[in-house]
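In response to reviewer comment 3 from the previous cycle, which asked for concrete evidence that the modeling workflow produces usable outputs, we include below a single protein chain processed end to end. The sequence was submitted unchanged, and the resulting structure tokens are shown without manual editing.
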Amino acid sequence: MKFEVFAVLALSALAQTDNADRENAADVIGYYSWNWGSGSRPTGSNAGIAFTGYTDIPTAISNYTPGCGWCCPTLVGYNGGKPWITIGGGNSAGVFDAPSLKKVIQDLH
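The workflow returned the following structure tokens.
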């Protein structure tokens, strides 16, 4: 499955956009799905976001297996696009430091 990297920092940029852009963004009803359980999917949701907890993009993507019986439902991509994936998390695998941030930049190019 192909993903788009979902950067939490991009959300803060929304506060600096004009009202028309904010109204379009209000159409996004996201839900998360972690790679160790079923996650959530509210009625009417239209943007799936995978969570694995890794800072490394290839590792994060490879550790989310859509359709696996015990986790990882297939995600819906916003507006028919690719689903999103988060990077980083709450344990040692998800801590950002200078080398991991440098690798994120490399992986995005």
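The chain has one domain: 4-108. We consider this sufficient to address the reviewer's concern, and the full set will be provided in the supplementary archive.
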